[in-house]
Input
Amino acid sequence: MKYDLIVFGGGTAGIASAYTAAKLGLNTLLVEKSDVLGGAITKGLVIPCMKLNTNNINTEFVADLCAFADKYNARHTYIDGNKLWFNPELLKIVFDDMLSFVNCKVLFNCIPVKVNYSNYNNTFDSILSNEMLSIYTEAKYIIDATADGKIFKILNCEFQKNSEIFQSPSLRFLISGINLNKFSNWLEEIDKDRNVTTIDRTSSQIHLSTAYTWDKNKNWALAPLFESGVKNNDLLYTDCAYFQIFTVPSMPDTVNLNAPRIILDNDESILDPFVYSRALKQGRERIYRLYNFCKKYMPGFENSFISHISDMLGVRESYRVKCKYTVTKDDIINPKTFENTAFCSDYPIDIHSNKNENDTLEYTKKTYCVPIEALISADYENLYAIGRIISSEFEAQAAIRTQVNCFSMGEAAAKDIYKKINLSAI
Ligand SMILES: Cc1cc2nc3c(=O)[nH]c(=O)nc-3n(C[C@H](O)[C@H](O)[C@H](O)COP(=O)(O)OP(=O)(O)OC[C@H]3O[C@@H](n4cnc5c(N)ncnc54)[C@H](O)[C@@H]3O)c2cc1C
Output
């Protein structure tokens, strides 16, 4: 089977790429390891998308995604203007619909086992497999959107050096059966100056967001609860590292928790399969404690229950690939102009630290840009990398890894490939 483009990884960045390429008319195959599209958004329960202030929210892909999501009641525009509050379960259906609408072929439960580059006709031959059957494919272009650079690894491409600091992973979960009216009234009462709580009563369903972290610089309304939780042995101190609550569109009694943070030892790396496996177990233990804590301490949670634990560990950073250009921390802090801009953003450097008081959220308040060369492999002209693996220094990745940026990278890579295929056809 011959394709213009194969996108490996049907997650945040991969979907944007495959959708855009197929919409432009490229013969596109999307290969996804699991049984569902969406990656971190659906399987990882990472909703809502982080709000960005600038242009990359107004792209064609985001507009189409919102239109498709609205068909399924899978989206809410929050009072702060963020239009990307999604329902992670419904998005699984939305993504299927979007890709079939643009005639993109999708292979689920499939991984690449071999990828070779043929200098003879400048194409990639790949063997894909579901562990029982193998499929042979050829493609003019490949995009690695696997979040770990798995195609770069198979092709023996260069990677960036691993950093000495790292991002902590999290394991997100949903709690359902909550009386949101009672909970939001109570939140309004305890967070009178609304330092960290926002409540949106503009739609038929109450939406809200609140948080607590062990960062002492903020006036957390939930602080007395967490302090009591630790004092009464209902929580470990490390359970308090990071706790964020968001409601979920079309789930009127449910909240999504950006928690718990997994605490690893200094010398432990999430790239080690044993550490990764222990992290999952640690995450589920913390979830159970946090859930019981919510039920005991927060009005409205009396009849609640855990309704979903993320199907994948929330890894913020693993491997970063090496492309023609490496995005540096300085590119984020002192923005530059590039001849071929892939996308621009203003999301800050956001490091979730393993240690108390070491979190970083460096607001640049500036719009910075990323060149297309940061998405094109240093080794192969027709191999692209998008998503959290982007060719970047650790701190730069901490800014550009967010979902809307991943959508923008996906869109930019697809458009660049479309341009090159059309030029070569002239
Ligand atoms: C806990 C956590 C909280 C976050 N919070 C936010 C937030 O609030 N807002 C925000 O904007 N961003 C947030 N982020 C960041 C953002 O979600 C991720 O950086 C982004 O979604 C990564 O996108 P991706 O496409 O690189 O990876 P993913 O979305 O993970 O997609 C990778 C896909 O590749 C597939 N795959 C893997 N290997 C193979 C293979 N060999 N063959 C085929 N397919 C394969 C996977 O199954 C998956 O579907 C958060 C991240 C985490 C972990």
Q: What stands out?
A: The first helix runs from residue 12 to 23.
